[in-house]
Amino acid sequence: MWSTFFVPDEEGRTVGPGTPGVVGGPAPGLPGGPAQGAGGLASLMTGRSTFGGKKRRRTTSAGHAMSEAQEGKIKLAFFVAIVGVVLTVLGVGTEFWVELAPLKNFYNNQTCLTAHYGLWKSCTKTLWVSDIDPERESCGPAELPGESNCTYFKFFTTGENAVMFQKTTQKNLNVAAAMLALFSLFLMVMGAICIIMSLSKEIQFFLKPASVFFILSGVLVLLCLLVFHQSVLALLASDHTVPLHHELSWSVSCIGCAGAVLIVGGILFLLLALPYSPWQKCLPHKDSSS
Description:
9 strands; alpha+beta
């Protein structure tokens, strides 16, 4: 007498032996026939082979798998772009774009006055002449200890120009420089979102708009620097009563480096978005036999 085993398949149907000595055939009197019973057993053996769900396949928009090397290159280029973003935020948020200083003995023999400002506010600082380098003719630098007083520009509220050392700023140029900086930051955020989408969804299509965003943001950062420098020259030319020594400070260095780094990051994303490697296109691989 044969033993009968009834096994439920993945759809809840009962699968039993169809022939003597064979486990997995259809149960007597049940529809399905031998083919259905064999299919149910095959589904039991293969359909449930990946418990916990199947791993999602890493594919691009073209349907090809994104390799680990490609993902690593994207992350490296993203790191370069992030460095540019950090430098831009550091430069835009500080007020050490330019330093203005009269002669250190212009007011009296004990103290002198220096000023430095950026896109949003200006600071005046009273320094002791004894703390200044004897070989330096003008007051400064602004990093020396002294009494400081900072005020925000009224360009964006009442539209008033600022007066420093009897010289008047050109608010149109200052506002234009600030707007260029803000718009460049907006483009950086959009580029970062595209890269995050590309890494999370594994779609290389987002690299193209990201490259455009970062290149444009770098160009706008450099353009902001040029407009700000023109505003400084306009400030110095507004009045010649007080002779001033001016020099660009470290915030401008951050902005200049940020613009260059952002453009390089955008170019890297553009190269990664190409359907072929530019190095292999320019330098084709030579056959070892040749």
